[in-house]
């Protein structure tokens, strides 16, 4: 995932050509914010986060990710928030594109097919519900 984030060509080059430069090419900062809330499903009228990694495990995982990111890139350009804290991040999106990067979930290979099928169905249900909730 670290390589994907650092190598993805999503920025313009000096001549304005889109999709030509990476974070590393441009020497940009990287802001990492842990966010368990993206791992939810709707249970009745209440979000359920049981698919999210347990806090103790997630914090270690997140810290190892940050360590690897800093080891691979320039550590002074890697910024992060406080794990588990309420934060307000002010960002400015530049363009109509959202890119979702995925890697294999830790332990996914050890799931039996029934468990994997159940998780896939839950994810599909979540995606359908997300589409219904969007006003556009």
TrEMBL record:
What GO MF terms are annotated? D-tyrosyl-tRNA(Tyr) deacylase activity
Q: Where is the composition biased (Basic and acidic residues)?
A: 115-136
Tell me which EC number(s) this protein carries.
3.1.1.96
Q: Which residues form a coiled coil?
A: none
Q: Where is this region: Disordered?
A: 107-136
Segments spanning the bilayer are none
Catalytically driven reaction(s)? a D-aminoacyl-tRNA + H2O = a tRNA + a D-alpha-amino acid + H(+); glycyl-tRNA(Ala) + H2O = tRNA(Ala) + glycine + H(+)
| Matches recorded under SUPFAM superfamilies | DTD-like
Do you know which InterPro entries this protein is assigned to? Daa-tRNA_deacyls_DTD, DTD-like_sf
The cross-references to Pfam families, in alphabetical order and at most eight, read:
Tyr_Deacylase
Gene3D superfamilies attached here? D-tyrosyl-tRNA(Tyr) deacylase
Q: What does this protein do?
A: An aminoacyl-tRNA editing enzyme that deacylates mischarged D-aminoacyl-tRNAs. Also deacylates mischarged glycyl-tRNA(Ala), protecting cells against glycine mischarging by AlaRS. Acts via tRNA-based rather than protein-based catalysis; rejects L-amino acids rather than detecting D-amino acids in the active site. By recycling D-aminoacyl-tRNA to D-amino acids and free tRNA molecules, this enzyme counteracts the toxicity associated with the formation of D-aminoacyl-tRNA entities in vivo and helps enforce protein L-homochirality.
This protein's assembly is summarised as: Homodimer. Interacts with CDC45 and TOPBP1.
Q: What is this protein called?
A: D-aminoacyl-tRNA deacylase 1
């Amino acid at each position: 995932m670290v390589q994907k984030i650092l190598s993805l060509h999503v920025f313009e080059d000096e001549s304005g050509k889109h999709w030509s430069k990476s974070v590393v090419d441009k020497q940009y900062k990287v802001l990492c914010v842990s966010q368990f809330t993206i791992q939810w499903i709707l249970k009745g009228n209440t979000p359920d986060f049981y698919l999210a990694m347990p806090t103790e495990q997630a914090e270690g995982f997140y810290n190892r990710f940050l360590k690897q990111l800093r080891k691979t890139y320039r550590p002074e350009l890697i910024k992060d928030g406080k794990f588990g804290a309420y934060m307000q991040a002010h960002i400015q999106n530049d363009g109509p594109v959202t890119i979702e990067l995925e890697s294999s979930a830790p332990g996914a290979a050890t799931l039996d097919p029934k468990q994997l099928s159940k998780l896939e169905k839950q994810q599909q249900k979540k995606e359908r519900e997300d589409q219904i909730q969007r006003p556009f």
